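To close the chapter, one final illustration. This time we ask the reader to focus less on the individual chains and more on the assembly as a whole: which components sit near each other, and how the overall shape emerges from the parts.
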Amino acid sequence: MDIFLQQLINGIVLGSIYSLVALGYTLVYGIMGLINFAHGDIVMVGAMVAFTVIHLLSGSGLPMFLIAGIGILAAILVCMAVGYLIEKVAYRPLRGAPRLAPLITAIGVSMLLQNLAMMIWGRGYLSFPALLPAISIPVAGAGISAVQILIVCASAAMMSGLSFLVKKTKLGNAMRATAQNREVATLMGVNANAIISITFIIGSALAAVAGVMVSAYYGVAHYDMGFILGLKAFTAAVLGGIGNIEGAMLGGLLLGIIESMGAGYLGAITGGVMGSNY
Amino acid sequence: MMQGAKLLEVEHVSKNFGGLAALSNVSLTICQGEIYALIGPNGAGKTTLFNVLTGICRPDSGNFRLNGVEMGGKKPSAMAEAGIARTFQNIRLFSNMSAIENVMVGRHCRTKAGILGAIFKDRATRAEEKSIREKAAHLLEYTGIARHAHMLARNLSYGDQRRLEIARALATEPLLLALDEPAAGMNHSETDSLGTLLEAIRADGITILLIEHDVKLVMGICDRLAVLNFGEKIAEGTPTEVGKNPHVIEAYLGGS
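The assembled structure is written out below.
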């Protein structure tokens, strides 16, 4: 088996998930200059909600793709609501406060979400059901699984949809205007609060899908899975230039490939001093 | 002097910043179709009055009416919807968006499509977005910067940035266009052609409120003007009347 090609494929799959999460960080940062540390935990909420819904429906006799679809849809809707509420309850009262205040609040919201999730879904690892049959398509000595193909295609579709929304629509125009100068945008009749809410809702929807992808890929969901994932996605967003949408996509992809190559080669390169645990 | 119906009535507006009275008890009336200028030394409260009129700050007391509707203390987006648009003394464009996109943002308060339209792209939304783009292109033509439509706003020359601010303000279809020092930093020929543009805007039925230090421009195009000094209105009238007013001469030249 070709290790390089295999790791490249794995890296692209991982990277497209990071990109989706990184977009949430970058969108919110672009519009209000806030690093929303709770974003990673929204990913977790998405995974957990999908887990619960799929679990509940699994005995109903519906076909698996339909169950998975309902699970993803439920995750998206719940995450949108959670994202909207977080912004409304936690960040909106701090509009105009020094920047450190919302940042600390974001860390607080992250802890709150993790602990709530622990109370609801417990402390253990939940084994996430396989959404697609475990088939592997051979490609030049490496293999691509059905889940991997789905992850990459869905990510690409959502990212191009987002690009189109931001660049070519009236809503996107208003979002970019609000990001560049909120006060002047309101003078043009843009309702800045509504734009900020919509930004959180869009970011949370992407996070929900990323959460389902990550859990379906690794087969587990856990109440603090959002922490490390969020940190990596945040790194990807910074790598691409935070606030920059294409940057977040590329940063995520690059980070995924680097991580996967590292896992594949670091042990060999360093003679076993550093292994895939880095 | 044009005497139309009363468009803007400012009544006893006061605004303090800490102990400083930026505006004290200012009243003035602007009629439909006028070019009305606001002059006064730096720090006289001119820009504060603009901020009150566009909802950026609330008056401490007093109120103002646009076409008879009480407006004091409303939000900036509501002011835009009611028909007050402005430009800024220090240019505030969306600098990383192209010229035409800047103007398209200005159409926001006159168009309806929301998030669902943006996602599903139904026929009404597509038609609306087409009309937004056409209207924006027309306004760039009107203000004389159509050739720069796809340049980023920050790469435009200074004079063109000022014109772009005017085009963006016009995109909100204002009844009252408030211009904060539009000729600042312009040379003579640029100032002259700005004067021509303002006359054209007025001829299209838009009332103009103008803050300007360029005395030649002000005296040349305005119908009436008010003079502010330390937050108080010290004179009002036609350019000739105001030019003879002893209070004005004292405020500008310092007198004993």
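Residues 96-171 of chain B form one domain. The interface with chain A takes residues 54-56, 75-77, 79-81, 85-86, 88, 92-97, 101-102, 104-111, 113-115, 117-119, 128-129, 132, 168, 171-172 of chain B (CB under 8 Å). With these observations in hand, you are ready for the problems at the end of the chapter.
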